[in-house]
Amino acid sequence: MAIIITDECINCGACEPECPNTAIYEGADDWRYADGTDLDGDVVLPNGKQVNANETQEPVSDEIYYIVPDKCTECKGFHDEPQCAAVCPVDCCIPDDDHVESEEELLAKQAFMHKE
């Protein structure tokens, strides 16, 4: 399952540089699938969605830092625990019940984004 940043976020930014997938963005910032990944051009995501990895996407939140669920792997393949949750001073990085994925699915997503 992906991690979500709740509205308790104080916009300190501690989480953003810790994400190995560049899945965390400041509120109101646009994002791209290509940011911090090996994705480029037209791709089919593991969930079947077709996208151009280089195209700018709308912000998930306009007010607080946010995590892109399609890019979040809970740090699987990189760390033993989600790094955003480990550094958050107000504990607002929590599991996202709307995006439940198995460890196998998270590792497959990580491998897809970071061709080894």
TrEMBL record:
SUPFAM superfamilies: 4Fe-4S ferredoxins
Alphabetical UniProt keywords: Iron, Iron-sulfur, Metal-binding
Limits of the 4Fe-4S ferredoxin-type domain: 1-29, 63-98
Source domain of life: Bacteria
GO molecular function, a single term: iron-sulfur cluster binding
Protein's name according to its UniProt entry: 4Fe-4S dicluster domain-containing protein
